[in-house]
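hiii so um. not sure if this is the right channel but i have a protein structure encoded as tokens and i wanna go backwards to a sequence. like what aa goes where. can anyone help
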């Protein structure tokens, strides 16, 4: 890694593991995000996405390895200044009206970069009135308030746990548009967990794929897609090929996701670029496979 990359790193996991009791939830997870990346954290239910995010803000401690967030160790310091985290359950005071929530956020963030006008304008843009009670908002509207408050802190790193799960397709688009506008304006870095690949396809430029309790893939999405091909051939194809991530058999025909562009079998398999969905699904179906360069 060159010096620029080192100094530009906003978030780094270095051989991080997490045990709950005697059970490994995560093992040997390493990846780093430079400034300005919009990264998707993808994995099956229970893969460890929430745990990974919580460790970055000091809400859980790694059992092994080290996390560095904006140059700090959250296990020692708690949530580093400059980081906004929106948890999956969007914790807000349900009895508060939106304007009271904005006032509370102003007090809680008084030592930081709090920009109440920005948060209020994002809430207004979502069509939510400041007189509305949080408990009476829909789940999607609560998500929009939570994200507006997170962006009002003008963070350098935004961590979002399943931000789009409860939103309708238009609201998903609008939220990601808001987040990407903040990225363009400030160079903020984003790590967001999601199950829905189509949601991240347009918005994210980086993928961290969790499976089998570890990081299976990590890198720029364009590079990861360019580094894999879908090949198809007779059922006997691809059997002993180490570059095959996953093969699925349909009668006399096999379709395989293959690393590194290598034609994987004879006779003459055809190849095409995978979609992000095909890439993710193939890795999740093949938990033993991983990108050797991600290790
Ligand atoms: N506080 C805890 N105590 C014990 N086990 C836990 C705790 N928190 C998480 N786990 C376990 O760690 C694993 C990872 O959980 P985590 O919530 O991080 O996964 P996830 O990828 O966010 O899942 P989902 O997509 O379903 O939200 C799971 O097996 C879960 O049961």
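sure thing!! here u go:
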């Amino acid at each position: 890694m060159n010096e620029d990359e080192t100094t530009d790193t906003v978030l780094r996991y270095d051989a991080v593991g997490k045990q709950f009791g005697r059970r490994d939830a995560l093992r040997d997870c390493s990846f780093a995000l430079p400034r300005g990346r919009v990264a998707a954290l993808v994995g099956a239910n229970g893969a460890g996405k929430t745990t990974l995010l919580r460790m970055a803000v000091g809400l859980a401690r790694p059992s092994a390895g080290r996390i560095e967030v904006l140059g700090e160790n959250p296990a020692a310091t708690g949530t580093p200044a400059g980081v906004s985290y929106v948890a999956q359950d969007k914790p807000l005071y349900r009895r508060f009206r939106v304007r009271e929530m904005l006032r509370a956020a102003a007090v809680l963030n008084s030592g930081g970069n709090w920009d109440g006008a920005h948060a209020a304008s994002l809430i207004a843009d979502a069509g939510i009135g400041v007189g509305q009670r949080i408990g009476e908002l829909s789940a999607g509207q609560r998500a929009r308030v939570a994200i507006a408050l997170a962006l009002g802190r003008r963070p350098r790193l935004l961590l979002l746990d399943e931000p789009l799960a409860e939103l309708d397709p238009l609201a998903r688009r609008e939220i990601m548009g808001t987040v990407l506008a903040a990225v363009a304006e400030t160079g903020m870095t984003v790590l967001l967990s999601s199950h829905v690949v189509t949601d991240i396809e347009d918005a994210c430029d980086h993928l961290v794929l969790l499976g089998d309790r570890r990081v299976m893939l990590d890198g720029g999405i364009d590079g990861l897609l360019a580094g894999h091909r879908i090949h198809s051939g007779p059922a006997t194809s691809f059997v002993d090929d180490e570059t095959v991530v996953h093969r699925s058999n349909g009668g006399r025909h096999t379709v395989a996701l293959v690393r590194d562009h290598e034609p994987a079998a004879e006779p003459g398999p055809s190849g095409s670029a995978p979609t992000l969905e095909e890439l993710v699904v193939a890795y999740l179906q093949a938990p033993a496979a991983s990108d050797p360069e991600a290790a």
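oh and The pocket of adenosine-5'-triphosphate is lined by residues 20, 25, 43, 45-51 (CB under 6 Å).
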